[in-house]
Each structure stands twice: as structure tokens, then as C-alpha cells.
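New to this. Please check this record:
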Amino acid sequence: MIEARAVIVNSRGLHARPATMLAKRAARHKCEIVIRKGRREADANSVASLLMLVAGQNSELTIRANGEEAEAAVADILQLIAGGFDDDAVTNNPKLPAAPAVPQRKEKTKSARAPKKPMQKIYGVGVGESATTGEAHIRMPGETEVPRYRLSAGEAQAEKECARFESALRDVRAELDALRARAHQLPGAAEIAPFIELYRNLLDDPEICIKPRESVRQRKINAEWALKERVDIIRANFRRIEDAYFRERGRDIEHVMARLLAAMSGGKTPPRPAAGEIIVAEDLDPASVINLRRKGCRGFITETGGGMSHTAIVARSLGMPAIVGAAGALAAAENGDEIIIDPRGQMAVAIIRPDEAALRRYRGSLRARKKTPRKKVAGGGGIKSKDGETVFLETNIEFPGEVGDALRAGADGIGLFRTEFVFLNRDSPPPEDEQFEIYREVLRRAAPLPVVFRTIDLGADKINLADAEHRRAGANPLGLRAIRYCLAAPELFLDQLRALLRAFAESRGRGKILLPMLSSPAELARTVTLLRNAREQLRALRKLDSPPPPLGAMIEVPASVFVMRAFARHLSFFSVGTNDLVQYTLAVDRGDEKLAALADPLHPAILHLLASATDNARRAGKPITLCGEIAGDPALTEIILALGFRRLSMNASQLASVRGTVSGGDIGALAALRRRILAAPTPEAVRAAAKNANAKNKK
């Protein structure tokens, strides 16, 4: 027997992806391998068993192997653990869509339902800028009804039952393979693929694919019940885990069971959502939102989630109205109920079974919106307000393919291109040449408009690709992320800077570099030095004399507002990232749905920081852009303009509404509004002041 010890170094520990990698690595060797943490012991071939070790960062593991290839197996696993599993897991990972479950009870239809219940309102966090109506389609999260019966004596019946279970395994594997193939065509495919792979590997886990068959043969019970018993044991073990992150991994096992049960039920699953419906669910992942949009669903309501979650951001970019964090929605709604979603305003509302007055009000506004012709708008020159002031409206994008959406929407430029997608879900950082091709393509597609490239914003809710020390800090939103990460990994940063400079050289000055999370002049000085080094390297290696590009700072740490004048000596522009500015100023983790209501961008502290930022930029003679979710909210446009912003960057789907607000407004009259909102003691008072100002402007 060979035994060795190892310490987990990756920031998220032995979570789903590393556990899958370890199980695959163990399966290569002809020996028995056991992983031990304290008193807990796991079969190295079982992902479920490994997850139940709850091995977080800095956990010490003992690896024991016995058999022909024991020494090689232990060495292989030690190397995998020491390398941090090349961990590219995202902290707030999107999950694979749950399998359709066999319902516990028959779905109620309109004809079978009791007398209509009264109108009910459910409040939550709104996503989107327009209301919509449709019939409810309920996705119940509960248990699956599992048949239980004894098999007749004899081996033949048991083998027939095992064959039926094996057939279900094949069907679900094929289903996941088909989903994996389709996922390549969807936005966010790179983030979704690892989770499809996880589910695929769980189907080969001994806890799920072997032990239920052993129960069928030994105890003569049906395959569904044998599977449920095994999963119940696993589920109970996961529920005893104190760590919330690892406890959630038990849901992956439940989803796999649900898929197998659905396959064994002969395809008897609840009806799928149809065009025009509104989905009501406990939770949805980004992939599900994309698929629902493609099917023509009008919107969705979830009981969990926050306005800055990946699900909300995807819905917003797709122009799909939604309300998240709407506790009680599942209990209030039934299949077929008429629902109105109104995500606008501070208290977004879902009106279930609306009365005739509510229906007339909302349907009238929808008809008016549908009659408004949609046409391509030429961008580049800004939009004039009613009193002749120019406001520039730009777009935020994540993928090169989104440039077309920005152009069709009439954007004045790409105000923020997030370069992280180039680095996500890879085993190693992308080489300079690959990055160069991507950045050059973005500039080519956007021509003649300018493009602002934000440098790598890795860490916190994104993956890290450098060494284990950097990965350990990456899970902390106050830790080694964004520019701090880049300065700690200079070779990685230099690769990106050289790629950007090469792309800019071909675009005749249309490219700009934006530095995220700057908080001190010292960080900026080090960055300027690295940028100078990158230019010198290009001059020496490629004979390319690249001129210095426009360099900007992203104001998203409160400290940066107070050192903007020092920043301005080396910078050409500023950009405010409101999502993180809210998070860091109010001490509210943007990934925590329970704190979503506290992350109010109209908190007086946020407004004073924004006003100071525009004042500082004006004194320095530098342009300043507002990015983040509030830039695309037409209900807040007048407040933003009153604070002094004349450049806004948002999702392409939000441009039309904001453009309408700007073109119909009198910016010169907003000076009084600025004084009132900066004197307001609460977010509610700010909204009231803005509402009064808007009413006066319309008179």
C-alpha cells in the first residue's frame, strides 16, 4: 500500500469540477484508491463520495492506494492536487438546467380549478425596462414521486430491471450529449459546458450507476426505488454539511436522479413551456433563460436571485422582463393564471390573476409599444436633448458577436468590452497571438466607432489562471482581483497589453484601455511602467512602434474617487463601474441574494460619490462615462444626467429607452434636481424628487 498527504490549494476546494477531475484521474490506474480527510473517507472513483469530504482550501488529505499501479496513481493525484486542479471554476457558477421531474400530483388545469382566486401581488427585484403579460407556467422544485414494488423471485426479473436501468442511463447520457452539442451555439457556452460534463460524469459514478443495480439484484426491488434509496443516503450526507457551498453540490446529484427517473417513467414529464408564457420557478440558470427566450417565453419570476446575478444579467441583455427574489410566487400562482410582470421602479411587482383594470392598463401600454416602429439608428454623434445638449450612449459587450447588436442599436461606441471571456474555462492562459486576433476582430467589426477594452478583471466571481497563490485569494471580492491580479501576474498582463497594442496599431487610434479596480496612484504608476515595457518589447521583437493608447481608470472603489486628480496626470478618461462601487461602498456582497435590497444605487453615499466623480473629472478636463446596470435604467436617466454624466454605457437592448428619455428631456433644467437629490436623506426621497422633476418637465 502507498500512502501520501496533500493540501488543497485552490480557493474553492474540492468542489464539483476538481472532484470530477480526480475521479477521472483515479480511474486511469489499476488499483483501489481511498481519499481520507479527518474521519471521512471517500472512494476516489466516486465524485459524490469525494464531494462529501467537504475538502475546502487548506484541507489536508491522505491518499492511499493499493494495487498494481498504486505508486503511479498516488503520484498522479498528488500532481493534480498540487496544481490546484487548474481550477477555472466560477464562484457563482451557472448550473445545468434541472431535469424535468415526474410530478407528485396531477397538474391542475383551468377547467378543473376551483373558483378563481383573487388578485395577488408579489414583490421582488426587477430585471428589464418594460412590463409584459402572459399565462403562468409553473416549475415546481419539489420531490419526485417514485414507484416502489417488489420483484418476483428469480434472477430473470432482476436482470430485466437492471437492463431497464441501464437503458435509462444510456438515454440520459445521450440527452446530455445532445445538450452539450447544442450549447456550443449559445451565448455563455463556455461557462455551461463544464456543468454538462459534470452531470455526464455523475452518470458513471459508482454511487449512482452501480450500487442501485446491486440493490436490485440483492433485495429484489425496482430500479427507481433502488436509485432513490441510494440518492436519499447521499442527500442526507450533503444536508449535514455545514459549508453552504459544498451542501449545494447535493442538488447536482438530485438533478441527475430526476433525469434518470424521467427516463424510466417512459417520458411522462410535465408539459414544456410554450411561447407567450411566463415561467414561475424557484430558480433558473443562465442557460435556461436563453432557451426560454428562444422558445418565445415572455418573461419569468424566480423566488431566489438578485438583480446582479448572472441570470438577471443574461435576461437583461436578452430584453426579457423578469422579477427575481420574489418569495412566495410558487405558492401564489397556478398553471394558466394570467400574470403581469412589471420590473420597473424600486418595487418590481408580479400581479397574479390581475383584475380588469390592471389588464387594461398594462395591455394598453404593450399595444402602444408594439406599434412603435423599430429601425436601425445611426450612432457615433451622440443624441441631442431638448435643449440641445449632447449625450453619448455606448454599449457594454462581452463577446465579439455582440458588436452587431451595438451597431444596430445605434451606439456611439463600445464603452466597455469585457476581455475576461478570452480567459474563461481554459487550462492555460490564451497566448498573445490568439488575444490579438480577437481584439483586432472586435475593432474591425466596430469600425468606425471607438472601443474601450477593460483589462483582465479576474478574481472574486471569476476564475483565476495564474499560480495557486493567486487562486487562493480569488474568491474574496476584497482580495486579489482586477488590476491587483494583473500586477501580481505581470507576464500574463504583458501578454494582454502587447496583444491590445498590436490590435490598436491597425485601428488608427480607435482602441482604448480601461484599468479596473484602481485604488491608488502607485498601482497606476506600476501599470504605466508595464505598458511602457510592452511597447518596448513590441519595438524590439516585432519592429512595431505602437503609440501610447488612451488609458482610463474604472472608478469602482470609493478610495479612487478621492485620488482622481492624481490619476488624471496619466489618464485620458474615466469610467464609473456602479455595480462594484455600490458593493464596496455599502459593504453588500453583490452575489448574496439576501442582501439584494440593500444594494441600492440611489443610497445617498453612492450619489455623493458619483457627483464627486463627475466634478473631479470636469476639473481635470477628462471625459467620464457611467457604466453598470443603472446606466441603462430609463427611470434613473434624469438623476444620472443631473449628477453630471454625459456618457452612458449599457446593454444594447436598453439604448432605445434611454435615448427616448434623453431626447425628450431638458438637461439645463436639472441643476435644481441635483441639489435636491444630494440633499435627500434616503433613496425613497431621491426617487420622489426625481419623480416631481419629471412631472414638471412634462408640463
The longest helix spans residues 155-183. Residues 88-114, 371-375, 460-475 have pLDDT under 50 and may be disordered. The two ends are 86 Å apart (CA to CA).
